[in-house]
Design a protein that fits this description.
Elements lengths: L14 H7 L5 E4 L6 E6 L5 E5 L3 H11 L1 E5 L4 H11 L9 E3 L5 E3 L7 E3 L3 H4 L35 E5 L12 E3 L11 H14 L7 H7 L2 H7 L11
Parallel strand pairs: 1-4, 1-8, 4-5, 8-9
Antiparallel strand pairs: 2-3, 6-7
Helix pairs in contact: 2-5
Amino acid sequence: MAQSAWQDHWTACDYSKNEVKTKHRQLIVLDLNGTLIKRGAKNSDRSRTGYARPHLSNFLQFILNNFAVMVWSSAQPFSVNNMLQVLMNEQQKRFVRVWDRRFCDIDGYYFGKAQTTKDLLKITSGYSLADSPHRNVYDTYRGYLGVASEMKDHWTLENIVLVDDSETKAVRQKENHVHVSSFEDLRHDDELLKLQFYLTKYVDSKDKYPNLVDYLKEHPWPEFRDCVSSEPPSASEQ
């Protein structure tokens, strides 16, 4: 049954235009809660307080300058919209796509605590909200379908990386997954700083790795994270 409590606000940004204009072939797919953001408990009005992970702004600036970037969260669309508007308002206007729970594969009830997975082949196949079995859970939905259809052949699986704190959500394409630690400690967290350094190494050696996933295979993220210091990248790495 369709829900009518939420009014769609995606028209604030035209992500499809960003996707059509991008020159980048490498796509970074970002999870939100637990990866970039920590959401607090619900308030009386059902809103939530959100906390940005340390170094988030600099990390976003770096990847937006060097990759195409999209968000894919298993949260409800109104929660995704709120997190984007509150915690990364200007930078999120440069994303090429924003996908929410309706684009996930869901093992169970859509509005329950069901297991969700993110199949990256949906990105390369031109999958849109019109293809989702959950497309009608909000009867107020208008406009943004989650894809610029003419870009279907632009993206290849070998050049897509999912940054997510959940291994189960990335189970379909494990070799494309950069498994970051869950964001819990608001004071002591340098995960995004290390990830920026890791991706900087790729940008500096891009001629050697025509496919981004080849870089991940040759330089496993867990090994890199555990041995690298959290010193900030040099000016040339911005």
